[in-house]
Description:
This protein is 15% helix and 41% strand.
Amino acid sequence: MKFTKMHGLGNDYVFVNCFVENITDPAHTARVVSDRHFGIGADGLVLICPSQKADIRMRIFNADGSEAQMCGNGIRCAAKYAYEHKLCKTGPVFSVPGQPPCPGSLRIETVKGVLTAGLLADPGNKVRSVCVNMGQPVLRAADIPVSLSAEQVIEQPFEVMGTPLLMTLVSMGNPHAVFFCENVDQVELEKLGPAIENHQLFPERVNVHFAQVLDFNQFRMRSWERGSGITLACGTGACASCVAAVLTNRCSPRSVAHLPGGQLDLYWCQEDNSVYMTGPAVEVFEGVFEWPQS
């Protein structure tokens, strides 16, 4: 199986071009290739497939084999891959209010729907940065989903493992629980992350993020991703944290998220209620994976 290893801010995935490769059991494939000792090593598997309604279709599988609805870092890398490997032609200029326009764009089909990505390439025609319209955040509790009677969950008191927290819930096509704290480095994420992810309140589990506001335009965050554990970055989680910071009057709609793997520029645009995410996409290497002998 031919593959390409890529990452967005250290959130790394094995990408497979399903225009030419046939993956019959993606869940099993994800578990095997994601293993950092016996496989390629990654936070998950991304399949780039033909689409009937967009330029490409993206499917994401976490390291445990579960299929994810969305991946912010993965979609930036998928756009870079499709452009540089000439899987499709770029569309019109992609513009975001207050930012330089991207000269080319791609439409990517996901479980959430079709999302548009703007590409910023260097003189050598290599994509260095991608801006994605991640769509409108979902705040209705029943649609996240969470087993609470509230219409929205904003700064809801929540206790786990004896630790009292305030929880804000946002879906960006996948569910996120955001907790603001004084210092993200002091959070025992390896303990609280899995406890919150698998809490009985969340019938489909949840992604977990702790955010520390630096000022009105930036925050630090650490993430425990559903099905993958601690990662260096979570694109959809950064978008959800941006929304949560605005909802709780901690940050402006335009902010910078500082993650362990780097930073993302975020903008929750009030004109169309969409969240725009801008960040890098990096190709690490290509290879051929030989399946281990059973």
